[in-house]
Design goal:
With 355 residues, this protein is of the alpha/beta class. It folds into 2 domains: 2-168 and 339-354, Glycogen Phosphorylase B (Rossmann fold); 171-338, Glycogen Phosphorylase B (Rossmann fold, 3-Layer(aba) Sandwich). It contains 13 helices and 14 strands. The protein has helices spanning 21-31, 44-49, 95-109, 119-126, 134-144, 153-158, 199-206, 224-233, 251-256, 272-279, 309-321, 324-334, 340-354, and strands at residues 2-6, 35-43, 58-62, 65-72, 90-94, 113-117, 147-150, 163-164, 185-190, 213-218, 240-243, 260-262, 283-287, 303-305. α7 runs parallel beside α8 (224-233). The radius of gyration is 21 Å and the shape is globular.
Length: 355
């Protein structure tokens, strides 16, 4: 197959602010022997608002995949496709800008189009401030798609999608069994330090717990100074530490040093860090009705809570007392469904049926 991926958040260079999941899917197809090419339709206002680097128009290569970078001052009125150097069997688009641009140029390409919806799509369709322009065009682009895949259970149900497309982990990174610390509960968060991740709520919840713990936060972002002040305010410097982002190959070592992964994030499309923590047998705490809901079964292979201080406090106190080995074993058993091999196999079958 010759597949054209369209997504404005596709990495051209190493950038920790850009999620790599779309590239992971593209590489998944490439590694299975399919031809893959990418268009990045960048609405420059969005790029600047997200504080991403503006990269000039042109053809780029990353991991042997050709990427067309297309910048737009006005959002996607140019349907010129003369720059494309190849013919394609299928379009797979991700996120609002990707869907809208894919729908525009597919009026000329006239090939099957699969839209993969993320939390950002739901926000555009449900938030009034997008109703002037993006909402209608996004709705029409999804309506014109041959198939819609949702990145999580919540989006699948809310937007009446055709299938769920979760993230995946490498089978080699799944532990056989997890060994827990005896003397204190070691808690970790790997995340961008931004408001919707609710890391401040974890700090405030830990202020009220009555057990011995150590909390390590790995990440960078606009909330860094606020979180540091909060830790200092509550005199928790000896128990809670914030560290910079670490290289991906070091994540496994840090996860193995800890017992609990907690990230009470809202508006989360999926969050690969949850899967990575599950693959190392950690007790994972996520939020109801968001990305990881549907992967985690509450009280079986992890915990789902509401994102508030009391709920976080109660679940951490519960985890401190329970048989963690049983939850961990369930997590390690269940994560095997979400290996790269299994997810890509199902994804390719769906694509072939669409063609």
């Amino acid at each position: 197959m010759k597949i054209l991926f369209i997504c404005d958040l596709y990495p051209l260079v190493e950038d920790k602010t850009i999620p790599k999941i779309v590239e992971d899917f593209a590489l998944g197809f490439k590694n299975l022997g399919h031809f893959v090419c990418v268009i990045r339709p960048n609405f420059l206002f969005n790029t600047i608002l997200r504080k991403h680097k503006v990269i000039k128009n042109g053809i780029y290569f990353r991991n042997d995949i050709k990427i067309y970078n297309k910048n737009f001052i006005l959002p996607f009125f140019d349907d010129d496709i003369s720059y494309l150097e190849d013919e394609f069997d299928l379009i797979i688009s991700h996120m609002p800008c990707g869907h809208i641009y894919a729908d525009l140029i597919n009026k000329k390409l006239k090939i099957p189009h699969i839209s993969i919806i993320h939390q950002s799509d739901y926000k555009v369709l449900s938030d009034f401030k997008y109703s002037f322009y993006f909402k209608k065009r996004l709705y029409n682009s999804l309506k014109n798609s041959n198939l819609i895949g949702a990145r999580n259970k919540f989006l699948y149900e809310k937007l009446d999608a055709d299938f769920i497309l979760p993230s995946f982990v490498e089978e080699k990174n799944i532990l056989a069994n997890k060994i827990f610390n005896d003397k204190k509960l070691k808690i970790i968060t790997l995340s961008k330090l931004i408001k919707r991740k609710n890391i401040d709520l974890v700090i405030k919840a830990l202020l009220e717990v009555n057990f011995n713990y150590e909390y390590s936060i790995y990440g960078e972002g606009v909330e860094y100074k606020k979180l540091k002040k909060l830790i200092k305010k509550y005199n928790l410097d000896d128990k809670i530490k914030i560290y910079p982002f670490i290289e991906h190959n070091l994540i496994w070592e840090k996860l193995d040093e800890n017992d609990v992964f907690v990230l009470p994030s809202i508006n989360e499309t999926f969050g690969i860090s949850y899967l990575e923590a599950l693959s190392r047998g950690l007790i994972v705490v996520g939020v109801n009705n968001t990305g990881i809901d549907g992967i985690i079964e509450n009280n079986k292979n992890g915990f789902l809570i509401n994102p508030d201080i009391q709920a976080i406090k109660e679940v951490l106190e519960k985890i401190n007392l329970i048989n963690k080995e049983e939850i961990s074993k369930n997590a390690l058993d269940d994560i095997k469904k979400y290996t790269k091999e299994n997810i890509m196999k199902k994804y390719v079958e769906i694509v072939k049926k669409t063609l």
